[in-house]
Design a protein that fits this description.
The chain has a single domain, classed as 3-Layer(aba) Sandwich (Indigoidine synthase fold). Helix content is 47%, strand content 15%. The protein has 14 helices and twelve strands. Helix 4 packs antiparallel against helix 5, helix 7 runs parallel beside helix 9 and helix 11 packs across helix 14. It is globular and about 55 Å long. Pfam families: Indigoidine_A (PF04227).
Length: 342
């Protein structure tokens, strides 16, 4: 396994100049554009076949205000470490894609907040070329994680096909990225503000393996059940790791969706009820297309008495996903160690 990881890093050297920086340092020693900077603990873990979990950074830049975003980012990283894996929060800072952020870099991004760029696949080249800074979305995080051989990525929820997406073509790049980038994404499923049946159909078209964790019903972020049967169910981190190990070289990703924890289901049901009310109202008022999502978000905020409930649940779900993601990454590292020694 260690030799495989080193081979990946050597291959990456042929495409990018990598600066290995200690996670204790916050500065950017190499100002050249086109560099990928990997923190020392992530580099060491990859080289030795240890568990690493990628984390996206738009939850830091765009998910909540400072200092809550900074504290949440540190807490999620701590959860990953406590479960035996190394966290690799990914962002672009001053034109440098960074895999594994120091505490100082986390805080810098947190303070930038919405002044930072929100970076998907299409934005990477421009942000790097203009030496910009920003948080990576699901698609961009998947790309950078896959480049260096990180197999497991934790996020809150993924995007999907929007309501009326069959006519608007409003489909998240998360779905196409899952179809082209071989990485496992652990999330709480898809919010019911989206079209979940069509999202699952699109994932099938993209060749993505979709798993529900310990349930046969695909979770809907704030709700344990979406009413859509999951293509398959797995019940332990070891089962998930075995699936990842058997994915072969198909060049597509895996989505593992884990339902909201029982202790948060009451709050989740409140938000879910508000979403369904907002959806009905939007239909009655014939609000469609690009106007629909802003209306739904605003109306759900009104119906739940503010964004605080949704924000606290978002954090709880990310932390829950981080636990499972780290457990899967650790189980996968054990399986790969076994394979390399046999």
């Amino acid at each position: 396994m260690a030799s495989n990881a080193l081979a990946r890093l050597a291959n990456l050297h042929r495409h990018f100049h990598i600066t290995k920086s200690s996670t204790k340092g916050g500065g950017n020693d190499n100002p050249s554009v086109g560099t990928i900077k990997i923190s020392q603990d992530v580099t060491t873990a990859l080289a030795n076949g240890k568990a690493v979990v990628a984390l996206e950074s738009t939850i830091i830049s765009h998910g909540m205000p400072y200092p809550q975003n900074f504290e949440t980012a540190k807490e999620v990283e701590t959860i990953v470490r406590e479960k035996g894996a190394i966290p690799a929060t990914i962002a672009i800072l001053e034109g440098i894609p960074c895999i594994g952020l120091s505490t100082e870099e986390l805080e810098r991004l947190a303070k930038l907040g919405t002044n930072a760029r929100k970076i998907a696949r299409r934005d990477i080249a421009h942000v790097v070329a203009t030496r910009g800074s920003g948080g990576t979305t699901v698609s961009a995080t998947m790309i950078f994680a896959s480049m260096v051989g990180i197999s497991v990525f934790v996020t809150g929820g993924i995007g999907g096909v929007h309501k009326h997406g069959e006519s608007t073509m409003d489909i998240s790049s998360d779905l196409t990225e899952l179809g082209r980038t071989p990485i496992t994404v652990v999330s709480a499923g898809v919010k019911s503000i989206l079209d979940i049946p069509r999202t699952l159909e699109y994932l099938e078209t993209q060749g993505v393996s979709v798993v529900s964790y310990q349930t046969d019903d695909f979770p809907a972020f704030f709700s344990e059940k979406s009413g859509c049967k999951a293509p398959c169910q797995l019940d332990s981190p070891e089962d998930c790791a075995r699936l990842i190990g058997k994915k072969l070289d198909l060049k597509s990703g895996i989505l593992i969706a884990t339902p909201i924890p029982k202790e948060h289901s009451v709050s989740g049901n409140i938000i879910e009820s508000a979403i369904q009310t907002a959806l009905r109202e939007a239909s009655d008022k014939d609000i469609t297309g690009s106007a629909e999502t802003p209306y739904l978000l605003s109306r759900v905020n009104e119906l739940t008495g503010g964004a605080s409930l949704e924000s606290s649940l978002d954090i709880a779900l990310v932390k829950n996903n981080a636990v499972l993601g780290a457990q899967i990454a650790v189980a996968l590292s054990h399986i790969q160690d076994h394979g390399s020694s046999s």
